[in-house]
Specification:
The protein has two domains: 111 residues, Jelly Rolls (Sandwich), CATH 2.60.120.10; 82 residues, Arc Repressor Mutant, subunit A, CATH 1.10.10. Helices cover 31% and strands 21% of the residues. The protein has six helices and ten strands, in the order E-H-E-E-E-E-H-E-E-H-H-E-H-H-E-E. The strands form three sheets. It has a four-stranded antiparallel sheet, with no helix packed on it. The longest helix has 24 residues.
Length: 212
């Protein structure tokens, strides 16, 4: 187990910054932010989006179990990763079990981001980025919460829509007061991932649709 006892410091990634190849092959836990993980069979093959990583998720588990696919990890929003130290086989077994359960959840979430109207898909993504447990059974936000948004191209890839469609949906969500740009006026011309947005409580959009 000595390979997991390296003296490593937390990593801070800016939006759109990629995790280095060497770092992606060691164990991390995502403490804050959101990451996009792409995969390809070989270095020369086209990359495809496979899943998101959100706070609490483990990274680098694939290298422990012999996955041969090439993985690319990039920050969708500013992110902080902390190193994971595994001291014995029992801890490693528990980590792998947790990673499998969380990976299954993330796969189901990605599928949900590919079905329904464009507005519904963007809304689900925003709720995921804002954190688990902030939506009730009726699809309403229970309390106001602030989240950072990925850039339009990343959002479009994740929900399988055109960037122009995502832009229209975000404009609609602002008009419906579901989404509020709460960044200071001096930052309003910045890219999405450099601005803060607030999801407003009590706003149900189940009857509103915008197709891609």
């Amino acid at each position: 187990m000595n390979s997991f006892l390296m003296d490593r410091q937390p990593r801070h990634l800016l939006a759109r910054e990629a995790l280095s190849t060497s770092d992606s092959q060691t164990l991390w836990r995502l403490a804050s932010g959101a990451l996009r993980i792409d995969s390809s069979a070989t270095l020369d093959a086209p990359r495809a989006f496979v899943r998101l990583a959100l706070p609490g998720d483990f990274l680098g588990v694939e290298s422990l179990v012999g996955v041969t696919d090439q993985l690319w990890v990039r920050a969708l929003t500013p992110a902080r990763l902390v190193p994971v130290v595994v001291l014995d086989q029992g801890q490693l077994t528990q980590l792998l079990m947790d990673a499998v359960l969380k990976g299954h959840q993330r796969c189901r979430e990605v599928v949900s981001l590919r079905t329904g109207s464009a507005l519904e898909r963007v809304k689900r993504l925003l709720l995921m980025l804002a954190g688990d447990g902030n939506e009730d059974g009726a699809g309403e936000v229970r309390e106001a919460t602030v989240c950072a948004l990925p850039n339009l191209n990343d959002m479009a890839t994740i929900i399988n829509a055109a960037p122009e469609t995502v832009c229209r949906v975000l404009a609609s969500l602002r008009e419906l007061n579901f989404l509020e740009d709460c960044s200071p006026p001096s930052a309003r011309n910045y890219h999405l991932e450099l601005r803060e947005h607030r999801l407003r409580p009590g706003k149900s959009l189940s009857s509103t649709t915008l197709t891609s």
